[in-house]
Design brief:
alpha/beta, Spore Coat Polysaccharide Biosynthesis Protein SpsA, Chain A, 8-stranded mixed sheet, 13 helices, about 45% helix
């Protein structure tokens, strides 16, 4: 009988013809003592990615499965189909233009999670590279501590880049689905939501070893989130609704610290956008809601200033706060 994989690795590919081989070679080189599966989904890329995958199919191990789509599903549809195929206790998701640099990465992360059941996720550090796969001088705003915290979440620091993450698959998908059913907003970066969900449901480890590469290419026509987003009224309502959902989820499942962090994040966004001319949100409505808080209203009112002060201080010290 076929062994049930302990880890499921899903790879999203779209217009990654120049990078996907490096990504898949980094996965195939992993030295592990457990079975793992890899699903590679090419979302009908027009750049020849499918041809590269067809060539690699016979060269890579049998635990690699290739899905070459005949029509484009979009990033969300492609990812959801890959998640539905996954069977492992642990889940890893990497974009086809990123890659791993250490052959013991999966083994180390699994060993840690198996020995520490109170953890829901483990990340590693990464190097930011350019189109040529060489370091481009940027630094990812990743957590410098062994354990991630709600404090670092509030200050917009990530536990690590998404391609370095290994998490409990069933817990992640269930908590993510519940969160999304609670909220009524458009697209918002899932890595920030996920970091919060992992913290609410357990502990998050940040391995301080640099075992991955995150490709950040900024050029005309770039498809990364920051180059596509329009900071307008729609985005303002989305960001505030996302933060309100953080509060709802924390109040249902989290500790007082989780609720406090969620509310500070919510009022930081609400006060910011209510004071911005690009948004139709009203400052009077925000202040009315804030004054109805039974406790900590001053702390919530000062949340934007606190956030700006800490990130400004970090930037002065040369610590990356964004990318």
């Amino acid at each position: 009988m076929e062994e049930t994989p302990l880890v499921s690795v899903v790879v999203s590919c779209y217009n990654h013809a120049n990078y996907i081989e490096e990504c898949l070679r980094g996965i195939a080189m992993q030295r592990v003592d457990f079975p793992y599966e890899v699903y590679v989904g090419d979302d009908h890329s027009p750049d020849g990615s499918a041809e590269v995958l067809k060539r690699l199919k016979d060269e890579l191990p049998s635990n690699f499965t290739f899905i070459l789509r005949e029509q484009n599903l979009g990033a969300l549809g492609n990812g959801e189909d890959l998640y539905a195929r996954a069977r492992g206790k642990y889940l890893v998701h990497i974009e086809g233009d990123d890659f791993w640099t250490y052959d013991g990465r999966l083994q180390a992360q699994v060993d840690f999670m198996e020995a520490h059941p109170e953890y829901t996720a483990v990340y590693t550090r990464c190097t930011v590279v350019g189109e040529d796969s060489k370091p481009n001088g940027e630094e990812y705003p990743q957590c410098p501590y062994d354990d991630y915290s709600f404090r670092e979440f509030f200050y917009s620091r990530m536990p690590g880049q998404s391609g370095t993450l290994l998490c409990l698959r069933e817990l992640y998908l269930a908590s993510r689905d519940e969160f999304m059913q609670m909220g009524h907003y458009g697209y918002y970066p899932g890595d920030r939501r996920n970091a919060f969900l992992f913290l609410v449901n357990g502990k998050v480890r940040c391995m301080q070893e640099d075992w991955a590469a995150y490709r950040h290419v900024v050029k005309k026509g770039a498809s990364n989130y920051s180059s596509r987003v329009k900071f307008n009224d729609k985005y303002a309502h989305t960001e505030v609704a996302y933060a309100k959902t953080l509060v709802k989820y924390a109040e249902l499942h989290g500790t007082p610290e989780a609720v406090m962090t969620a509310k500070k994040t919510y009022y930081r966004f609400y006060l910011k956008w209510a004071s911005d001319k690009r948004s139709s949100l009203k400052l009077s409505d925000c202040l009315h809601e804030l004054m109805a808080e039974p406790r900590y209203r001053l702390r919530f009112l000062l949340a934007p200033l606190q956030w700006c002060a800490v990130l400004g201080f970090r930037k002065l010290r040369g610590i990356p706060v964004d990318l």
